């Protein structure tokens, strides 16, 4: 019987980051998972990043996690979402080749020191009183450890639904974790059921691509990892098609046969990833919905139709899919399905993701009521670091709302819990102007070095980058100009007698680095990526003060009364979903509104502005 410092149960996105983090911290770590092949499997969409989620990938990467580098190795299309908006709300996203992602993750895990992968089912936790001491494998072997991290994803009590058909499974083709689920239910932990769904997979060679609009990737990719400097895999285009009134009729006529709508599933699903059944019911006035046809890999003939997840019977899926332009002759390789699974109410966890009721047991990923690879990976990192700290007798490591999206997520989960699968959005972060994807390394890597979870390659790359940045900032700060000098060089500036540094001028309209190149050509040595970074910082510094005052206003206005006749659906910018929740809940004060599940700081600012308008 081997004694480990940390045992991680589950080799999904949370489990891999947890095991790697514990290993980097110097702990002897076992990663126990059903199958060696589990590592790097994407259960649903072949993509990483996006709005809010891209921030999480960069933060995982900043702390030397695996997701960013593996996503860059697998990336077959890069797109920076919200490119036309400010950097704070831009979301780097990649479409990823499934096989390449698995290869990359398996290689990283194989090369990690101190991480053993064990192929087995964990059937029980070993307990001594209220403390976890290890796990039992396949009902007969015991592994001991000081800390155990549970990352069972959609497998805990997992049940798949395709129309009227249902069977136990962790995802299509994989067994569910039913024995462990029984033990956890028996321990009296606060648990519930959630659900999610996935679309049918299509044979690429049966799609009429010529009939469809294509969507190429970006020509100047925003990489997922701070260590990536070039595009690795060949890049491809996706295609776009749309549902139509005929598609909607077929879905509507068969709604009673959908597992999600026929009442077979008790769990709550993610409103942010609606199934085609949800879209047609909730947005009944729309006659068309967009579908992205995303090839699943360079050597794969499978295509993921993003936007039509479903739990209708297979024959109905075939009928509605064939009603869509370009898919008239399509072959379905695997029908879409829904899955329902157990989760633990994350309010039972502390900020280190340790269960308050059972010492030594940490939880991360879908088991905590979240959805998405990025949310899972980020929690895995937190749980792995803290499981390691416990094993080493060190104090827990905490992430705050002001330093990272990871901190926002952990705080949201542990303080508010979830009423539907939780996913990250930039609007959840009150400090989003300072928590940008581009500065995740500046916010977290130095902390990671202090904690001991950063490898030598990243530490060296980070120090080099910071030295270049700091010396560029210092040079720009040291060079300054009077209004007279600027005006005689042809720039418009008020005659206020104030000397302005080159750094300040970069942030002023009509200046930028182009002006500095002319005014101070001796500073021309600053590399392009450093220039881009400094430009973002300078532009944002002006807004940071506004961010601070908005947050202060929110805090001071918590007791403010909300009149009963306020019409939430009339507030511009407030999502339909939050407007519905507020209309139903009718909070009496701003503090009550803030506690509504899914409420965001950005939405509170909008409500507050409406109340002030009425004063
Ligand atoms: P998983 O990736 O599920 O990994 C769990 C791992 O634990 C597996 O490797 C499993 O083998 C292992 N395991 C479980 N129990 C045991 C045990 N007892 N012993 C040993 N090993 C065990 N995300 C989105 O963002 N949007 C979506 O629309 C979406 N739709 C989805 C649809 C479906 C049908 C599924 C299955 C998932 C979907 N997801 C979606 C969720 C996404 O797959 C997960 O959020 C993510 O994979 C969670 O990562 P995880 O590490 O928590 O769990």
Automatic annotation (TrEMBL):
Its main location: cytoplasm. NAD(+) binds at residues 269-283. GO terms for molecular function: flavin adenine dinucleotide binding. One of its GO terms (biological process) is tRNA wobble uridine modification. Keywords: Cytoplasm, FAD, Flavoprotein, NAD, tRNA processing. It is found in: Cytoplasm. SUPFAM superfamilies: FAD/NAD(P)-binding domain. It comes from the Bacteria. The keyword Flavoprotein applies. Coiled coil: none annotated. Homodimer. Heterotetramer of two MnmE and two MnmG subunits. This is tRNA uridine 5-carboxymethylaminomethyl modification enzyme MnmG. The gene is mnmG.
């Amino acid at each position: 019987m081997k004694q480990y410092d940390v045992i991680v149960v589950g080799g999904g996105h949370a489990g891999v980051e947890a095991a790697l983090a514990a290993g980097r911290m110097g702990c002897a770590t076992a990663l126990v998972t059903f199958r060696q092949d589990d590592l790097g499997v994407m259960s649903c969409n072949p993509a990483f990043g996006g709005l809010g989620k891209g921030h999480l990938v960069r933060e995982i990467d900043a702390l030397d996690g695996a997701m960013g580098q593996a996503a860059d190795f697998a990336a077959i299309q890069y797109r920076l979402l919200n490119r036309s908006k400010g950097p704070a709300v831009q979301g780097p996203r990649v479409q990823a080749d499934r096989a390449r992602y698995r290869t990359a993750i398996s290689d990283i895990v194989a090369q990690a020191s101190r991480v053993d992968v064990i192929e087995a089912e964990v059937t029980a936790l070993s307990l001594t009183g209220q403390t976890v001491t290890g796990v039992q494998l396949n009902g007969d072997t015991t592994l001991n450890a000081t800390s155990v991290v549970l990352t069972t994803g959609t497998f805990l009590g997992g049940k798949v639904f395709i129309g009227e058909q249902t069977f136990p499974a962790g995802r299509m083709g994989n067994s569910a974790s039913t024995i462990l689920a029984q033990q956890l239910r028996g321990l009296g932990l606060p648990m519930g059921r959630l659900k999610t769904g996935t679309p049918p997979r299509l044979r690429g060679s049966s799609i009429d691509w010529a009939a469809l609009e294509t969507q190429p990737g970006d020509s100047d990719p925003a990489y997922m990892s701070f260590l990536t400097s070039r595009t690795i895999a060949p890049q491809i285009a996706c295609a776009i098609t749309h549902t139509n009134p005929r598609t909607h009729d077929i879905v509507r006529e068969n709604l009673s046969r959908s597992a999600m709508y026929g009442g077979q599933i008790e769990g709550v699903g993610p409103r942010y990833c609606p199934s085609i059944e949800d879209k047609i019911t909730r947005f009944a006035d729309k006659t068309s919905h967009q579908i992205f046809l995303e090839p699943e890999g360079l050597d794969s003939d499978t295509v993921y139709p993003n936007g039509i997840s479903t739990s209708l019977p297979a024959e109905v899926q075939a009928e509605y899919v064939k009603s869509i332009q370009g898919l008239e002759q399509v072959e379905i390789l695997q029908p879409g399905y829904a899955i329902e699974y157990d989760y633990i109410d994350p309010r039972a966890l502390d900020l280190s993701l340790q269960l308050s009721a059972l010492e030594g047991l940490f939880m991360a990923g879908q088991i905590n009521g979240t959805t998405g690879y990025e949310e899972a990976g980020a929690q895995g990192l937190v749980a792995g670091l803290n499981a390691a700290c416990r094993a080493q007798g060190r104090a827990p490591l905490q992430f705050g709302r002001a330093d990272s999206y990871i901190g926002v997520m952990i705080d949201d989960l542990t303080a508010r819990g979830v009423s539907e699968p939780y996913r990250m959005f930039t609007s959840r972060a009150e400090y989003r102007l300072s928590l940008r994807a581009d500065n995740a390394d500046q916010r977290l890597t130095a902390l990671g070095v202090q904690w001991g979870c950063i490898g030598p390659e990243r530490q060296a790359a980070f120090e080099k980058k910071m030295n270049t940045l700091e010396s560029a900032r210092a040079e720009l700060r040291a060079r300054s100009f009077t209004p007279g000098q600027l005006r005689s060089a042809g720039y418009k500036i008020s005659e206020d007698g104030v000397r302005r540094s080159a750094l300040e001028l970069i942030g002023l309209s009509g200046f930028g680095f182009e002006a500095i190149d002319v005014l101070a050509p001796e500073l021309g040595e600053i590399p392009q990526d450093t220039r881009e970074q400094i430009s973002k910082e300078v532009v944002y510094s002006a807004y940071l003060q506004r961010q601070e005052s908005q947050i202060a206003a929110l805090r001071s206005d918590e007791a403010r009364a909300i009149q009963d006749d306020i019409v939430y659906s009339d507030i511009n910018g407030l999502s339909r979903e939050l407007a519905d929740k507020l209309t139903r809940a009718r909070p009496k004060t701003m503090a009550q509104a803030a506690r509504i599940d899914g409420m965001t700081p950005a939405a509170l600012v909008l409500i507050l502005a409406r109340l002030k308008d009425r004063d």
